[in-house]
Amino acid sequence: MVAYFTASVVGKKYHLANYRKIIEIFRKKGFEVIADHIINVEEKDIQLQSKEKRLAFHNQLEKWIGGCDIMVVESTFPSISVGYEISLALHRGKPVLVLYSEGEPPSLFEYHTNDRIICEKYTAMTLEAIIDDFVNYAHGGSDHRFTFFISAGIASYLEDVARKHKMPKSVYLRHLIEEDMRRSK
């Protein structure tokens, strides 16, 4: 399996450790991760490229996205070009995991209804469980994705409980439902 990783090159100044941790988890799970174009490039290198080199890179980027099985995005630091890459992946039917570690979800994806994109806030404690859930979903291990609206009070409670139990909100909710199913038998 091939995972295409993308994130803001400028944001690397602030979030490189998170980028590396995400890549490491996917590699540990047996994925080939395409990430050098983010990890090994500096902003000044991009700005100094000729038009021909930028076009050649864009063609390569389209090949990487077209050939990957999943896309993984670290979106804590905003980037228009990352949004463009997400759009390319969705257009090609690729499952996309959008991760962010601070603040609110990226505004363009907060209310996105495409079932191929999953947007999750993570911490060092929840990152691996979120990735496990996404990999299961991408492999077809999940039966259905279910989205519903909740009040601000419920959202706040879920954030607190997820942080307390050190697990993603979706995992907490799934455990509640599974427990209720066991009691109902």
UniProtKB/TrEMBL annotation:
The lineage of its organism: Bacteria, Candidatus Gottesmaniibacteriota. GO terms for molecular function: 5-hydroxymethyl-dUMP N-hydrolase activity. GO terms for biological process: deoxyribonucleoside monophosphate catabolic process. It holds the Pfam family Nuc_deoxyrib_tr. It comes from the Bacteria. It comes from Candidatus Gottesmanbacteria bacterium RBG_16_52_11. SUPFAM superfamilies: N-(deoxy)ribosyltransferase-like. This is 2'-deoxynucleoside 5'-phosphate N-hydrolase 1.
